[in-house]
Amino acid sequence: MRIAIGADHAGYALKETLAAYLRERGIEVIDFGTHGPDSVDYPDYARPVAEVVARGEADFGVLICGTGIGMSITANKVPGIRAAAVSDVYSARMSRAHNNANILCLGGRVVGPGLAIEILETWLRTPFEGGRHQRRLEKIHQIEIACGTSS
Fold first, then answer.
1. Coil/strand/helix, residue 7
2. 35 a catalytic residue
3. What angle do CA 20, 103, 53 make, to 5 degrees?
4. What is the pLDDT of residues 54-64, one digit of tens each?
């Protein structure tokens, strides 16, 4: 499994924790930065992670900013991306089971490292249920096509 990861300054410390955790589990991590606590702009990290996931060069993505919201908004501009801002285990499970989210967005100022690891583990372990949920994802894809953001 390959996971692309990125963060802004508010998510830097949590990114480092999660990247180390993933590597310890034998998961390949593609780290897009940031690589320090200096202030940066979250779109500069959300976009390349989302593009790598959309192209299939990474299985999933993890993005971290202060709340996870800015990263989610940015990543969801990339066709084929379903980024979910999550701050609890239940939402992590549902974002995969029902929405087939391919990018997990977390808030470094919202969740601590222990909860973030539990959310990430749940998110990675939860399979997409398909069925009626697939029909809904196809409707989302049709919106992307209608708006000219997908082929």
1. strand
2. no
3. 90
4. 999 999 999 99
